[in-house]
């Protein structure tokens, strides 16, 4: 499975791939290999550009979409 994440340039997410893999395996009850691809991007000034935790913000977005829950 490949996941594409837009992020600010040079902002690392060292544990995101493991968190995604665990959440997806729990959800699908299957063993998966997750490949994480980062796409550098920017956010408009109308949105909060500095969430307290970038990984937490991605996880929260996924929960908001009902896609999956990432601890």
UniProtKB/TrEMBL annotation:
Biased region (Polar residues) positions are 43-55
Give the region (Disordered) as residue ranges.
41-71
Superkingdom as given in the UniProt entry: Archaea
Q: What name does this protein carry?
A: Uncharacterized protein
To which species is this protein native?
Natrinema versiforme JCM 10478
